[in-house]
# Entry
Amino acid sequence: MKNTLKTLLLLALVSCGKKEVASPADAIYFGGDIISMEGEAAQYAEAVAVKDGKILFVGSKAEAEKFHGDKTQMKDLQGKTMVPGFIDGHCHFAAFGSQAGKLADFVLLDKNPLKVDPMTLKDVVVLETIKEGNSIYKKE
# Structure
């Protein structure tokens, strides 16, 4: 009887451990202004979970961490701004290679363009461009 009770207690403790995530994210971005651009006004989120270059989740960091697996990279934006990438339907072929940001999933900026003086908008710097989970441009 004592052995059965010990076994049941051990099984209960083991089952309380970390649950395996069915579809873990490749990366979870957090720690900056994450702007979804959904709707008429900008929508802010605490975190974005991404897998295979596709967004799994946008919302609170606590909810995003439900997509955290053993290989998930936690990427702290350190106050930078993340905006959706852009796809330009009329790219000029000669300039195609220099317009990587227009093909990105995400773009990291040094400032939030919605919080700067419109006269200084031209000074907002692209720090990194991310496509399918890979950095395709990074400012040195």
In short: Residues 8-17, 88-101 have pLDDT under 50 and may be disordered.
